[in-house]
Amino acid sequence: MNNVLIERTVDFVKQKLYGAEAGHDWFHIERVWKLSKKIAETETCNLEIVELSALLHDIADPKFHGGDETLALKISREFLEKENVSEEIIDQV
């Protein structure tokens, strides 16, 4: 697994969600991320995909972006492409 990518994703999410309301701030993402890793311990899965998905899951919650359900996908894809993540991983995230 690419720990550098996970660290860079954490930094990206913290920056993007800086000042977000409490229900959708970094601490919410961190709780989801930790729980996802714990669940992944009992499953057969790609941990990198689990972690990236958990970290990026609320990067642009539609409730706070005029109901746009595509914005989070666009932001996540742009970030992952910039990080040279394979198309296969991006599609799964």
List the topology elements.
Layout: H1 3-16, H2 26-40, H3 47-56, H4 71-82, H5 87-92
Helix pairs in contact: 1-3, 2-3
Low-confidence stretches: none
- What's the assembly state of these chains? single chain
Number of helices: 5
Number of strands: 0
Question: Termini separation (Å)?
Answer: 15 Å
Mean pLDDT figure: 90
**Any idea what the radius of gyration is?**
13 Å
Secondary structure class reads: mainly alpha
User: Helical proportion?
Assistant: 55-70%
Q: State the major sheet.
A: none
Summary of the model, kept short:
This protein has 93 residues and is an all-alpha fold. It has helices at 3-16, 26-40, 47-56, 71-82, 87-92.
Structure commentary:
- With 93 residues, the protein is mainly α.
- The chain contains 5 helices and no strands.
- α1 packs parallel to α3 and α2 (26-40) runs antiparallel to α3.
- The radius of gyration is 13 Å and the shape is globular.
- The two termini are 15 Å apart.
- The model has no long low-confidence stretch (mean pLDDT 90).
Protein traits:
61% helix; 93 residues; mainly alpha; 5 helices
